[in-house]
Design goal:
The chain is of the alpha+beta class. The chain is built from eight helices and four strands, in the order βαβαββαααααα. It has two domains: 73 residues, 3-Layer(aba) Sandwich (Glutaredoxin), CATH 3.40.30.10; 116 residues, Glutathione S-transferase Yfyf (Class Pi), Chain A, domain 2. Strands 2-1-3-4 form a four-stranded mixed beta sheet, covered by helices on one side. Strand 3 and strand 4 form a beta hairpin. Helix 4 runs parallel beside helix 6. It is globular and about 45 Å long. The protein binds glutathione. Glutathione binds next to helix 4.
């Protein structure tokens, strides 16, 4: 691959997963802020890159790519499978699970109004949090890759979702990472990587960005 990569991002959005991947692989990239305070993800110019109106999009010499998992997989493939664990089939199975099961549930907790009318939001949020707790327990029990301390597609995708689960949703605190010891150890490792430090500085994420996150205070843009 030749030519520049440009990450369309907003702080603390799913673009964080892609930023972590680029930093882990040491790939140079430019960033363009999508201004969420002005619903920049729905601007015609952005929709021309990503007709779903979702963040992230990575503009590449091969054209724009969107969908977080697709971007991560493409980037890794372009760089000699740099982020692909040696147990490839297992890694793909988990990558798709993160993308089609965990990530949508995180979205439903954060954006229930995009899924259901206002009268039914409390019921949806209640159900989806129950589901998320089960998903995190499932990871803690079955995801043996949580023991790995090598950067991978999975290690850049999961930790931001742990962060969002801890940060988002009003009312009583519902997600307690310490109930999932392997997940907690993994989050503590992931937030100590140089890539996580650099991403935290770029997006104003603060310390302990995955294991005990604080709301972002970004140098530019807004998370929502
Ligand atoms: N399936 C998409 C989901 C991305 C996503 O949910 N992005 C959020 C930010 S974290 C977004 O763009 N939200 C704006 C909106 O829904 O209008 C992916 O994997 O890239």
């Amino acid at each position: 691959m030749t030519g520049p990569l440009t990450l369309y991002y907003a702080p603390n959005n799913a673009s964080l997963c892609v930023r972590l991947a680029l930093l882990e692989m040491g790939i140079p990239f430019d960033t363009v802020l999508v201004d969420r305070s002005k619903a920049g993800q729905h601007d015609p110019a952005y929709l021309a890159l990503n007709p779903n109106g979702l963040i992230p999009t990575l503009v590449t010499p091969h054209g724009p790519i969107y969908e977080t998992a697709a971007i991560l997989l493409w980037l890794s493939e372009q760089h000699g499978d740099a982020l692909m664990p040696s147990a490839r089939a297992d890694a793909l199975r988990w990558l798709f699970w993160l993308s089609n099961t965990l990530h949508p549930a995180i979205r439903m907790n954060f954006y229930p109004d995009k899924y259901i009318d206002s009268d039914h939001i409390p019921a949806l949020v209640h159900a989806v949090r129950h589901q998320l707790i089960a998903h995190f327990a499932h990871l803690d029990t079955h995801a043996d890759w949580l023991e790995s301390r090598d950067a991978s597609l999975l290690s850049v995708y999961l930790p931001p979702m742990i962060r969002w689960a801890a940060l988002y949703g009003d009312g009583p605190r519902w997600f307690e990472i310490d109930k999932s010891p392997r997940l907690a150890a993994f989050a503590r490792w992931a937030e100590q990587t140089p890539a996580a430090h650099e991403a935290s500085l770029a997006e104003g994420l603060g310390p302990t960005i995955f294991s005990a996150p604080q709301h972002p205070n970004p140098p530019e843009g807004s998370a929502t």
